[in-house]
């Protein structure tokens, strides 16, 4: 990204996923979120009747397990700049094979049950988002053993303001520059329209004037559909530079949208995002930007 630049181009190239004689990948929407990448590690929190373990798959190489006693808990001290309802990410593992619960309380308030779906196994971490009301400054967030099963904790972090998003501008794909693709209609698409048949090697959708308030790393949330029956991937480019490969798990079908997130670097000011076909195709609904702390 050039120094002092106020625009950024983002492209996604889609390798093939084959269903019969056709290859497909389907995108519904994108959300951009500015991140201050703060993580609160479980092993650095106040741990009661739990055990710190090591694993290469855990953040910082460590996590907390054995949260299995009635008084087991992990309490984090979290600092935020403003009073708001935040969306908090919890990185966890649940190898029980069934849903497990933990009781979450904030600043010693009333605890609420949080349900954690099973993961691929113990030490196999995934993300779960929950809403928490936080005060400016330090807050205590306690995760204690619940009534069902047990959970391993890696970290909490990525606090998104959900009650008063600082930026909520939506950019419709069908209003962008479209090449080698068509506009389709669907009742579950934003504005009831989206861009489909991005299936030529030169097909793309380019959306300009996407404003980022400050330069930084943003969370790119992609709403997508993948009815191919197997995982699809896109190769991302940012300002012509190669970005991460994005994997899209199978959804319930075409037009049945799910979400996937990746991080991208943007400049302050207007940015241009371009989604271009690789192998297969993608359908695009909109892009939305929200700032986080």
Automatic annotation (TrEMBL):
Family matches, as Gene3D superfamilies: Galactose-binding domain-like
UniProt organism field: Paenibacillus psychroresistens
Name of the featured protein: Carbohydrate-binding protein
PROSITE patterns given in the database record: CBM6
InterPro entries linked to this entry: CBM6, Galactose-bd-like_sf
Pfam families with a match to the protein in the record: CBM_35, CBM_6
Coiled-coil region list: none
CBM6 domain: residues covered: 38-159, 169-290
Molecular function GO terms recorded: carbohydrate binding
């Amino acid at each position: 990204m050039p120094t002092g630049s106020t625009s950024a181009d983002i492209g996604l190239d889609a390798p093939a996923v084959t269903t019969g004689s056709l290859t497909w990948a389907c995108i519904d929407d994108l959300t951009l979120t500015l991140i201050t990448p703060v993580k609160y590690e479980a092993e650095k929190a106040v741990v009661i009747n739990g055990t710190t373990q090591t694993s290469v798959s855990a953040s910082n190489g460590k996590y907390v397990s054995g949260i299995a006693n009635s008084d087991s808990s992990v309490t984090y001290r979290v600092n935020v700049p403003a009073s708001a309802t935040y969306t908090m990410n919890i990185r966890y593992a649940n190898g029980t094979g069934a849903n497990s619960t933990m009781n979450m309380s904030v600043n010693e308030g009333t605890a609420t049950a949080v349900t954690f779906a099973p993961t691929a196994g113990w030490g196999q971490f995934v993300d779960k988002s929950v809403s928490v009301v936080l005060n400016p400054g330090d807050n205590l967030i306690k995760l204690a053993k619940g009534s069902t099963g047990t959970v391993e904790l890696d970290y909490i972090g990525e606090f998104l303001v959900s009650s008063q998003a600082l930026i909520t501008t939506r950019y419709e794909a069908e209003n962008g520059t479209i090449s080698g693709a068509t506009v389709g209609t669907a009742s579950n698409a934003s504005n009831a329209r989206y861009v489909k048949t991005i299936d030529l090697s030169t097909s793309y959708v380019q959306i300009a004037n996407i404003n980022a308030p400050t330069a930084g790393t943003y969370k790119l949330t992609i709403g997508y559909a993948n009815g191919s029956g197997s995982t699809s991937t896109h190769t991302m480019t940012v300002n012509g530079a190669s970005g991460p490969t994005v994997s899209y798990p199978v959804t319930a079908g075409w037009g049945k949208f799910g979400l996937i997130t990746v991080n991208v670097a943007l400049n302050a000011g207007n940015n241009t995002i371009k989604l271009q076909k690789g192998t297969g195709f993608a359908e695009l609904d909109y892009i939305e930007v929200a700032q986080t702390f």
